[in-house]
Amino acid sequence: MYRIREVDGQDDDVVDTLTELHRLTFFNTAFGPAFDYSHWWPALHGTEPVAFAGVIASTHACNAGYFAGHGC
Description:
Mean pLDDT: 86
Shape: globular
Strand content: 35-45%
Structural class: alpha+beta
Oligomer: single chain
Order of helices and strands: EHEEE
Low-confidence stretches: none
Number of strands: 4
């Protein structure tokens, strides 16, 4: 069963998990997002983190953002 929940991007353990998922997805070929300035939802299969999605504020448009989704 999968479980998805919003997490605190300022929690060090959460940032470590999201950073590792990002690394496993992109193999260090893409810059990691600033997890502490966005909203994030990891997906867990049992207790294992397997994917994540986020909403990141746009730097080009006021009151806008984009979805960022990644899975392993």
